[in-house]
Amino acid sequence: MKSRKTALGLCANLLLIGVLWTCLPYAGAQAQQSAPYPVVQGKYYKFEKIAEGVYYASPGFNGTSFPFGSNPFFGANLVVIVNKDDVLLVDSATTPRAARALLADIKLLTDKPVRTVVNTHWHYDHTDGNSVFGPEVQIIAHEYVRQAIEKFDILHNEPFRSSTRNAPQAMIDRFKKQIAAEKDPGQKAALEKKLADTQAAAKEFVQDIKEIKPTPPNVTYKDKLVLYRGGREIDLLFLGRGHTGGDTVVFLPKEKIVCTGDLMESRIAFMGSAFFDEWLTTLDALKRLDFAVDLPGHGAPFKDKSLITAFQSYITDILAQAAKLRAQGVSADDAAKRVDLRSHAKDFPDIETIGAEVRGVRRIYAWMDERGPKNK
What we know:
Layout: H1 9-16, E1 39-41, E2 45-51, E3 54-59, E4 78-82, E5 87-90, H2 96-106, E6 114-118, H3 124-127, E7 138-142, H4 143-151, H5 160-181, H6 185-210, E8 219-221, E9 224-229, E10 232-237, E11 249-252, E12 257-261, H7 276-288, E13 293-296, H8 306-327, H9 332-338, H10 358-370
Parallel strand pairs: 5-6, 6-7, 7-8, 12-13
Antiparallel strand pairs: 1-2, 2-3, 3-4, 4-5, 9-10, 10-11, 11-12
């Protein structure tokens, strides 16, 4: 890695305890960019200009003590593509309010209307803003995404359930613990201010999630869909199952940009819905695309395809360790505490201790069960 992009301390505190694995940008994200991208700062979102008309949108500082505007739970990083006559969004945010905040901030970039939203996959932090868009907006995704949103009780299952149930209180408890241990009066006061902001935001978040109405895409595709917006070609590609059953890669061939959602992040992705052997193969297909920069759903833009290879190595390692522990009769929850993946910390500095996110290890065990006797 040529360089490292460090995110905000609040985000790091939260993700060290692993409660918003699918929701917030990660503190250890690798940025691999030779120089910072130009930034347009909105009230709630920071827009990094990656190419002409292509912006990477992430929750960012608005000058307050709280790094995500008035609510820290605004979720995934999004991509805004400003075309000749309209705007295309890659993903729609965590809640309707987060989506409306994004639309308000986009007015700093353009007055053109949003006419297309692409959902990279079905997880709530990428689709739960869908409901704010009217019938004039095409919401496009792989056909699996529509099936998942229609058939899964996604507001009562993972990853939504534990992320939204645990995250606010976990963040509050973290600050209280830090405040109790802090001796410096200035630092203590700063932490107390962040605690107060967090408590207020947590109350808002409880109201925000009540507004969510799971809304499936109104246009689907199976393998590939090519859009033309003015002089811009936008390819929607299903390269295979991986992070979920229906991951879309948005590829801009002229600009050599890919938007990979959570199929490939610049950190360790949530694995609770994964198809692991296919994920490895799908990432091989991703590496064969002619792109110069990847804009992931969480983390930071990266340029070096070796990070994809590093993530494949991580997947292979966690599968091998989990299989060994499973064969010994170790439960998934105990295996999550025992797997040692620190050898991958050079590529993914969010790995700081022994252990892995428990929902991912539970999925590994279930996936091995699904594959039958050869994994017994």
